Amino acid sequence: MKKTEVLKLVTVTKTLWPNWKASESADELALVVDTWHAIIDDVPADLALAAIHALSASGREFAPPVGVVRQKALALVDDTPDVDLAWGEVRRSAQYRGYAAGPPDWSHPAIAAAVDAIGWRDLCLSSNSEATRAHFFKVYGTAALRSNAERDLPPAARAVAELHVGRRMPELGVSQRVEE
């Protein structure tokens, strides 16, 4: 996202929440724009604007911090299946493919992580489907949170985290970053 687009987002936010004191001077406005840009520069401008409008329509009394705008934008395009859909995908694959065929390519990384944690063999051959389902629900919840937490990091924070964990983290997936 370009800084001019971020300036528009800040201006819209100021318009929707007139009590927000985004800037008293040109220097303060530049700092606000730079800060917002660092947090949401990988979110498409139209998606960030939709998030601001959604937050305004929800009746928020005060202007949202940029992190709330980022989280709302990501929530608008979140493709993480709920746990029931994920469990259905796993059960269908276990029933129709079976253990010998191996696990398929899953529709979401969180499903793959949960299946890996439990084990494809155990999922396919379990004789206690209620316990297996309960275990999957618990493991999948953790996997989905971890996947989204890594994906949701702003670009600068993701780069620092990757230096420390020694691997690439999931990308946002909704756009390609546009450098100004």
Main structural class: mainly alpha
- Find the count of extended strands (DSSP E, 2+ residues): 0
Query: Which term fits the overall shape?
Result: elongated
Gyration radius, rounded? 21 Å
Number of helical elements? 10
- Tell me the major beta sheet: none
Uncertain segments of ≥5 residues (pLDDT<50)?
A: 173-180
What is the total domain count? 2
Strand content: under 5%
Please tell me about this protein's structure.
The chain is mainly alpha-helical and 180 residues long. It folds into two domains: 3-76; 80-180, no CATH class. Helix content is 67%, strand content 0%. It has helices at 3-16, 26-40, 45-57, 66-76, 83-96, 98-101, 109-118, 120-125, 129-151, 155-165. The longest helix is centred in the last third of the chain and has 23 residues, at 129-151.
